[in-house]
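I am still learning, so would you mind making up any protein sequence you like and the tokens describing how it folds?
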Amino acid sequence: MTYMIVIKKILFVLLCIVVFIGCSEESKKTKRPNVIIVVTDDQGFGDLGYYGNPHVQTPTLDSFAKESVRFDQFIVSPVCAPTRASLMTGRYSLRTGVRDTYRGGAIMATEETTLAEMLKEAGYTTGMVGKWHLGDNYPSRPQDQGFDYTLRHLSGGIGQPGDWPNTPKGNRSYFDPILWKNGEMFQSKGYCSDVFTDAAIDFVEVNKEQPFFLYLSYNAPHAPLQVPQEYYDRYKDLDPSSGFENDARPFPEMDERMKENARKVYAMVSNIDDNLKKLFQQLKELKLEDNTLVIFMTDNGHQHDRYAAGMRGRKSFVYEGGVRVPCFWRLPSKFKGNRDIKTPAAHYDIFPTLADLCNTQLPTDSVIDGKSLVPLLSNENSSLDNRTLVRSWVRGGPERYDNISIRKDHYKLVGNTGETEGIEQFELFNIQDDPYERNNIVGTNTLKAQELKNEMDTWFDEMTNSPNFIKAQPAIVGTVHENPSVLNLNDAVFEKNETVGQDIAGWEIEATEAGNYDIQINLGHNRFSQIALTLTVGELEIKRNSNELVDGIIDIKNIALQKGATKLVPIITGKNGGYIKPFYVVMTKIN
């Protein structure tokens, strides 16, 4: 009897062990990965040693590329804010209200569901570091869009006119920049890319015990091209136009100014490479590397003419040099690395792919333009056939057939023409046979070109009739979330004014309730004499004159603002009648 009891106990223990091992293995299979998305700014396809650039020193990224699944045909938008909107939402940027990089065109509709909101709902802790560029006021800031932790600069870049705290610093704006940490002004110390990397490392350390999503968005190597001297010294004697085979030569030829720009860009990229080495080392030391998906990509092509692996065009163009970028995915626990995927993929595919990988649901109240890349990442024989990829950008907003491309299968149609021009004025390329886009075959393939043009028309009509494209994206003022509200030039809407004879800045605003406000108009801390101000806020018009403005600030006290959406437009002229553009406007609700 005792013997049988012992045997039963042993069998029971063995059964428990088997079940435990099975559960552990299943847990490993189903454990959701941490996610880190690294985006650099204006780093083109050719700004890596891995893609054949003999000059730029990127040992960390080159090694990372060799360990990763590489999307060889990864397509983004021609400029930065539209790429970021698509990355955050899985949608064409025009659907989200984002159409440009400034003049009010880089404010994403607050109704959009972001990656951060989706993953936060699934239990992830979310962090955003660096460049946001999708709106600087409530409710468009990253902390309003699902991020638990934020450290960012304003506008589209440090020191740009919209980044009002750093603009006065001129050619030192990338050093010790004033940033915004969880909504509060923060004086950082050090070079911007170093500061952002250190914040990213701290975020990982604090959140290592639970699933996290980190969006590390460097503003470098975007202009202004500022970099620590030790990195510039690596390249100061370089001739960046030398050492290429003919097909990969810089296009067009580089003048001395472009050569100097390339030296500084390469120095900035090397600094990022060293910073990523620190981040990757931390993942290894914390034993997070195996179950952390790291995606590296850039937001568009190179800004200045330099090596681009032979591709045509650069930032702002819809040719491959403007929209095809590096994209590397590493998740050792799930994906076999060191392989290339030739199937075209895009920035908006990341959103549904992460929904798939992180075991969460896509939003059901909006169209998702992206496709999950998990089949491609998991199975080397998978493909996403017959995809249509459209790229478009024109300063101020889209125009039919102007700087627009549509790609399907191996064919790519490019429009740089007017609405009344015939199909022969378009360009058609076979990207598989002609990756450098040098052989326009529209003359011998007019039926294929017309077919793609018809799809382009359908896309254009759908995008420009999207609800968030049509409606304004106002800053909501006077709330507990943000008071005062600082309205900067990046988010201003410029419209032609016949009185002053040029475009003037105004801001879309909304008050959730009636109240009184103090309004301060900052002209950049300059001395002015004999200025005249006409401020309109909806139906309200206020006029002021001053014979002497010492500090460049106009204060208007206790203005009654009604509930609802309106527009704030300050028209300021100097003694000669010339328009003076406001630097920024501060609105403070006082009661």
Summary: The first strand starts at residue 34 and ends at 40. The chain is about 25% helix and 25% strand. The longest helix spans residues 256-285. Confidence is low (pLDDT under 50) at residues 18-29.
